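Input record, target 12 of the design panel.
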């Protein structure tokens, strides 16, 4: 008899879209292994609170941070890595090359399903 391994889903991007996908996937599949890579230092901040922060009504930036990698692991069993950037994707081999932005170390990560949710940067007219 062969063992059935849980599906491994890798999500690139750990803010609004990425974390929404990760938590929804957990609700749909309790056995999936869900790994999230976010190149920034935080995940899942309150986007809807940004106007209040910019306008000065919220003065403490940390009030916008709703979750941490540890809290997401406890609540949803998500394996969340901040300050990690996906630098290469091999869709044939179903692997990613991931760089740890703090140590400079690189590693290869495999996946069964890949979700790309890297966000966007504002366009600046000069």
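The sequence produced for target 12 reads:
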């Amino acid at each position: 008899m062969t063992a059935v391994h849980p599906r491994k889903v890798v999500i690139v991007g750990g803010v609004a879209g990425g974390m929404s996908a990760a938590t929804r996937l957990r609700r749909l599949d309790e056995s999936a292994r869900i790994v999230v890579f976010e190149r920034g230092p935080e995940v899942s901040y309150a986007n809807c609170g940004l106007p209040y922060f910019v306008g000065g009504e919220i003065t403490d930036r940390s009030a916008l941070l709703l979750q941490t990698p540890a809290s997401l692991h406890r609540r949803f069993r998500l394996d969340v890595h901040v300050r990690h950037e996906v630098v290469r994707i091999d869709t044939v081999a179903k692997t990613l090359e991931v760089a740890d932005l703090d140590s400079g170390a690189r590693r290869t990560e495999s996946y069964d399903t890949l979700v790309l949710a890297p966000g966007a940067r504002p366009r600046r007219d000069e």
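Residues 16-28 form the longest helix (13 residues).
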